[in-house]
Design goal:
The chain has no helices and 16 strands. It is mostly beta strands.
Length: 132
């Protein structure tokens, strides 16, 4: 269904217990386990991945190619390729995405919009728990 692109390496880690205040710009990959109070934005000209872990908190705008969220985000989120919302993801803000994978338990308090919605139908993949 999706053409597999090679994921960029995660070159930067904001560790648990670390608080960053201000705009955060990055290339390639970034993993957040701590807190960021400010916008987190990938260089749009590069393939990028952003991981916001279960213990992470981001207050500000989030934008990257591939975004994986399992923590809390307060602010708008934009994923130019794939947005993965893990079971403990909580977003308070509007969400724009190319493709969306949302696991049971993830919550969004805001509007969902597809990128290029006028050009093609939205692609949403719902993950379900396996019975057994």
């Amino acid at each position: 269904m999706f053409a597999k692109k090679k994921q960029p390496p995660i070159r930067t880690l904001i560790g648990e217990g670390t608080v960053v205040r201000g705009e955060l710009l990055f290339n390639d990959g970034l993993r957040i386990d701590g807190e960021v109070h400010g916008d987190v934005i990938a260089n749009v000209s590069t393939n990028s991945i952003l991981v916001i872990s279960e213990k992470a908190r981001v207050v500000g705008k989030v934008r990257a190619g591939h975004v994986i969220i399992n923590g809390h985000v307060t602010g708008p989120v934009q994923s130019d390729e794939l947005l993965e919302l893990q079971p403990k993801a909580v977003i308070a803000g509007d969400v724009k995405y190319e493709a969306l994978e949302m696991h049971q338990g993830a919550t969004i308090e805001g509007e969902l919009h597809t990128l290029k919605a006028e050009e093609k139908p939205a692609l949403i993949k719902l993950a379900t728990a396996k019975a057994g």
